[in-house]
Description:
This protein is an all-alpha fold and 293 residues long.
Amino acid sequence: MSLTSDEQTSANRPSVADAYRHCLDLTRRHYENFPVASRLLPRRLQRPIAVIYAFARSADDFADEGDLDVETRLARLEDYVARLDAIGARQAGDDPVFIALADVIAHHRLPLEPFYDLLTAFRQDVTKKRYADFDEVLAYCRHSANPVGRLVLHLAGEATPDNLRDSDAVCSALQLINFWQDLDQDLGENDRIYLPQDEMAACGVSEDQLAQRRSDAALRKLLDGQIDRARRLLLSGAPLGKRLKGRLGVEIRATIHGGLRVLDALARRDDLFARPRLRRRDWLTILWRALFP
């Protein structure tokens, strides 16, 4: 007896366990200065956070990676929107990332809005390459970074107004740090400049200078202002790490101290286009400060 098309699709659909394994593997393959699904996190949160990361990482790849044209990138992101819609309608899917994501959303009663916000940011990556002022940059951060922190708080049952506010500050600051350490990569690979255009003009920094990787006093002044701003924003959210208890609090404090460590490295560098890498002694210092605040 032959199977119907629906039965064949169901038979070929990855199991939930296989879907989780797929997401964990994807998470392990990507290096970040800020560890994803760190061992510091409570064990019950590690797998769900890895799934959220796999969703964001795979969607981000549509926006940035490979040689796809704009229409194809946007179409793939719209497909992700449709898959999120299907989760909201409790319809089964066949993509391992979304199988695992549907399971996480159902078990933890997560809101869908942060996932839609992330897709908004990825679409913006495809269509917007310059930012007129810092307000535009910060608006991007609200969609690209803040949803992740909010989802972690929802997973932990800690999504209070104060925690959400401080989480937004930390996540936006970390996104800014990524911008200022990836100037060369963003422009060279994606023709993207996150430095506010009005502040570039005020400091006398041109796009040609960025393209030619010229480190000078004007660019240092501009970047010092961005680094100071990111530091103030990160520190404004630091009470979150003191407020959260247990391993999640340790993870948040480690993330904050990691961000501060990268900011220190950015401020010290001579080549303003060089991406700092944290070393073993940096991580040991971060861990010590997270464990003994």
